[in-house]
Amino acid sequence: MEFINCNICTADDTRPVVSQNGYDIVQCKHCGLVYVNPRPEADVLSRLYDGYHQRNGKDIHSWSVLMKLIYKECADTLTQVFPRGADVLDIGCGYGHFVSVMSGLGFRASGIDPSANEVSAALQNGLDVRLSTVEDISFGENSFDAVTMFYVLEHLRDPLYALKRAFHILRPNGLLILRVPHTTPIVRALSAFNIKNNLYDAPFHLYDFSPETLRRILALAGFQSILITPGTATLPHVFVEMAVSRAASAAARLIYRTSGRLLGGVSKSAVAVKPFSGPETR
Ligand SMILES: [Zn+2]
Predict the structure, then answer these.
(1) Superfamily of domain 14-273
(2) Distance, CA 28 to ligand 1 centroid (Å)?
(3) Ligand 1 centre from 34 Cα, in Å?
């Protein structure tokens, strides 16, 4: 097991939130980030992921059904912002369902995933998917118009570094669209009634982002025009238009709708823009 400092503010100053599945979940007293500390070493975590996508009887089809609505909403957004042929990368693409959706819409869609089984299945379906972690990403600067990360950030050992990598490979005015669970409010509510649960899914989920910590880590990575919405809400159309059009006139028709119907309304979506001239960090 390894002890870590806060991924956002680097402080080593936490309060306990809860213990689940044998792991301590803590909250940074300075920025509010919730994370597992201590956590398993990288090689142990990697081995734990064998069979992760097949847990609870899930297969390639059930993942597709589970994520279908979320993929459709994101695809609707991207087709309104970018022309056909735009470059989209799905980080943590799993079986490549979203890559398939975007390819079908005429985008140049590709994906990366660290799971050999999932990448193999995607390749057999003719998709442009490669075996890679976000840390080892090999694409050059300004390679993509959009990067998506569906339920990925909470799994990563260094989410700030991953977001910096996403920033690096995005073109100016490029969009990052991501989705994360937000578990802490529900766990606190259940704890008040002494209801035991395993909602953090430790150690697979190493972090739990609130709207505030998600906004902060995206800004630290260089993103601007950051829009975060609860899973059950619909972003105000006019606000989205204003925010995104500041960075990209081509994005002025953005209508971003999101729904948490499939996932209990605890998730958060974020849209963030790489500005024309921002702090390029690696
Ligand atoms: Zn912190």
Answers:
(1) Vaccinia Virus protein VP39 (3.40.50.150)
(2) 5
(3) 9
